[in-house]
Specification:
alpha/beta; Aspartate Aminotransferase, domain 2; Aspartate Aminotransferase, domain 1; 3-stranded antiparallel β-sheet; 16 helices; 12 strands; globular; binds pyridoxal-5'-phosphate
Length: 490
């Protein structure tokens, strides 16, 4: 056994630091050499690949997989992320060879089933959210935001209103909203929420004007509160000549109950990887359908799936006003199939039930947690809510961060912290609809015990987590002097 290399990641060496010369060949000893399959020009000599046995590789990655946390291991109440359980059947469906083995360049006539799946998803989303049409092209929420703002920009240019250069974003907005607006070349105007945690129509009217391009709203917002003045807000923005954008990343509070199209939104996105099944986290592949009201349909990214009078499906690239494609090929197709499977499995009644349970679970947690931690907006929430550790910090020196880290020792993922920014020492909690009452109760009791410890013995929390493979990291050094490069051991 080699001595543990200096770069080992918390006790587990890196894969290419393991192994011994000659070990990798055992199992394939009698296989034909690579040269018999590939031309010599395609082969590199002296390629320093790690020489590991298959067993070592399997153990290495299995051990690594046990050092992380995921929805399959425990409760993951990460606000604004909708870390729900994803039924396995949706993965099984998309793994069928009819979907998985289809080449993206397959001619339309030979890919009718796949095109029908995309068309059906597009139609279902349009009816569920009250939009004229969706594009399945963008690969994430932020990607769709950018697409929508490119549409707005092109639209204003064509109307001779290129002076509209400002995007209004409430202070509760997800960080991607101002980032997308900036990337698209707009100025960002941040709107302060009122005492009720909402956009005030009067405040909004004060900033509207001939420079207003788009107002980006999340409803329910990231405090988990429904913007009940939304109709008035939408009229005010429209009266000023602007467009309304709906951030629908977490739409599991409204499905079957409210539609952004009816609220007056012109543009929107969904995160099928949050609201409609699809495992996510760790920056994996996402999928952000982009919806538009009737007057913006012609700007949608290409291609758009069409269906003719004979029921034949096709990819339509001939859309002169389109902003163009947002990515290579048609979409994260596998995610579109998963989302469609999820919609079909639930049906319209099932989707309503999803919304009911998401809201019920969030309110159950909110009311129970309010027994021992401040909840700054003590009214009925939608799919998530915020709590604040401000008082604990002031009186006992225990921050939201410490509570979050301590939860890891109880086997729970931490909630989202320090967001939205307007709530000091914020914990943003989203249980989702798929958790049982027993799980929610266990979480409540863990947090109750942690808060009690914070008052009696705050020092005990400052070291947490103590049971995870990685304890407290030095966040300042990690941010200022990140060590991202592997170096061979001396
Ligand atoms: C997750 C999220 C986004 C961004 O979505 P990505 O797919 O991560 O780019 C935008 N807005 C809200 C409210 C979100 O929760």
């Amino acid at each position: 056994m080699q001595p543990p290399p200096s770069n080992s990641a918390n006790g587990i060496p890196l894969i290419f630091e393991l192994g011994q010369a000659g070990r990798a060949t055992d199992y394939l000893e009698h296989a034909k050499p690579l040269e018999s399959y590939l031309p010599a020009a395609a082969l590199r000599s002296g390629l320093p690949l790690p020489d590991n046995s298959e067993l070592d590789v399997v153990r290495h990655y299995t051990q690594l997989s046990h050092r992380t946390f995921g929805i399959d291991l425990g409760f993951y109440p990460l606000g604004s992320c909708t870390m729900k359980y994803n039924p396995r059947i949706n993965d099984a469906i998309v793994a069928r060879p009819e979907f998985a083995d289809l080449h993206p360049y397959t001619p339309d006539e030979l890919a009718q089933g796949a095109l029908e799946a995309m068309y059906e998803l597009e139609r279902s989303l349009s009816s569920l959210f009250g939009m004229a049409a969706f594009s399945l092209n963008p690969s994430a929420g932020a990607h769709a935001e950018l697409g929508a703002l490119l549409i707005a920009k092109k639209h204003f240019k064509e109307c001779g209103e290129a002076q509209r250069d400002t995007v209004i974003v409430p202070d509760t907005a997800h960080g991607t909203n101002p980032a997308s607006a900036t990337m698209c070349g707009f100025k960002v105007l941040t709107l302060r929420s009122d005492a009720r945690g909402r956009v005030s129509p009067a405040e909004l009217r004060r900033v509207l004007g001939p420079g207003t391009a788009v107002c980006m709203m999340t409803n329910p917002n990231t405090l988990g509160l429904f913007e009940d003045d939304i109709a008035e807000i939408a009229s005010a923005v429209h009266d000023a000549g602007g467009l309304m954008y709906y951030d629908g990343a977490n739409a599991n509070a409204i499905m079957g109950y409210a539609r952004p199209g009816d609220m007056g939104f012109d543009l929107m996105h969904l995160n099928t990887h949050k609201t409609f099944t699809i495992p996510h986290g760790g920056g994996g592949a996402g999928h952000g359908p982009l919806g538009v009201a009737p007057h913006l349909v012609e700007y949608l990214p290409v291609p758009v799936v069409t269906r003719d009078a004979h029921g034949r499906y096709a990819l339509d690239f001939d859309r002169p006003k389109s902003i163009g494609p947002m990515r290579s090929f048609w979409s994260n197709f596998a995610h579109a199939v998963r989302a469609l499977a999820y919609l079909y499995a639930n049906g319209s009644d099932g989707l309503k039930r999803v919304s009911q349970l998401a809201v019920l679970n969030a309110n159950y947690l909110r009311v129970k947690i309010a027994e021992f931690l401040a909840t700054p907006y003590p009214e009925r929430c939608r799919h998530e809510f915020v709590a604040s550790a401000q008082r604990l910090k002031r009186e006992h020196g225990v921050r939201a961060l410490d509570l979050a880290k301590a939860l890891l020792d109880h086997g729970f993922m931490a909630p989202t912290m320090y967001f939205p920014l307007l709530v000091p020492e914020c914990l943003m909690i989203e249980p989702t609809e798929t958790e049982s009452k027993e799980t929610l109760d266990a979480f409540i009791e863990a947090l109750r015990a942690i808060v009690a410890t914070a008052k009696e013995n705050p020092d005990a929390l400052l070291q947490a987590p103590v049971s995870t493979p990685v304890g407290r990291v030095d966040e300042t050094t990690a941010a200022r002097r990140p060590d991202l490069r592997w170096r061979p051991p001396p």
